[in-house]
Amino acid sequence: MFRILLSAFLLTSITYMSYVEACPRCGNVEVPYPLSTRDGCGDSRYKIYCNNGVLEFMSAEGFYYRILSIDSFASRLVLSPPLIQSHSCSSSDLGVGGVRLDGGSPFNISTRNTIMLFNCSANILLSPLNCSSNSFCRKFEALDVESGCKDTLCCHYLKDSSMNSHKIRVRFGGCTAYTSVIDVRPNDPAEAWNYGIELQWAAPHL
Ligand SMILES: *[C@@H]1O[C@H](CO)[C@@H](O)[C@H](O)[C@H]1NC(C)=O
Ligand SMILES: *[C@@H]1O[C@H](CO)[C@@H](O)[C@H](O)[C@H]1NC(C)=O
Ligand SMILES: *[C@@H]1O[C@H](CO)[C@@H](O)[C@H](O)[C@H]1NC(C)=O
């Protein structure tokens, strides 16, 4: 009886161990559990990609965003905001409508993101956006003189719990470019902003 229990115990420990195995490094970046770059490591629901030594996240539309950092203790990772094409005012993911996460995804867009939208059309101003002359987006415009978003109608909003936590939308006839800054404080100079789209993930059920 004892032997059966012992071997059952060993078997479950071995299964458990292989289940929680973290994926190998990508380039020189650690890939903490539950993130998974391939079959057989991590948890497949937390799929990310290792492309030529660069970690990337794929949106529901199939657009890839570079992962800038991962904080496994806080269950957060930071994506690089898409480039804004120079001399126009469009984000590189405008064609797919911005970033959208799958409804069933364990990831969501954290409430620490302040989203800035550019080249907006006047009919979107009803929503809870700050499009005033002292909106954060004006500081961005003042810095990023190349972007082609200068002097367009722009707005910002905090991605708080009243906002959709699975997408940041851009489109023709709405706003055509965006960026995101994590944990903005009103008195921070724009030069010190921490650009990124911060995602958080729900803990895996073991
Ligand atoms: C818009 O945002 C700026 C910067 O945070 C703030 O000073 C201002 O009071 C806000 N305006 C409105 C109408 O919420
Ligand atoms: C701003 O958006 C409109 C469509 O909503 C587009 O036609 C125009 O080219 C955009 N402006 C810039 C500078 O990209
Ligand atoms: C986003 O995910 C975190 C972690 O699972 C969760 O605590 C939070 O409530 C989620 N936020 C929203 C707005 O769904």
UniProtKB/TrEMBL annotation:
Signal peptide limits: 1-22
Keyword Signal: yes
Record domain Wall-associated receptor kinase galacturonan-binding: where: 23-77
Compartment(s) of residence: Membrane
Record has Signal as a keyword: yes
GO molecular function, one term: polysaccharide binding
Keywords, alphabetical: Signal
Membrane topology listed for this record: Single-pass membrane protein
GO cellular component, one term: membrane
Main location: membrane
InterPro entries: WAK_GUB
Protein name: Wall-associated receptor kinase galacturonan-binding domain-containing protein
Organism: Linum tenue
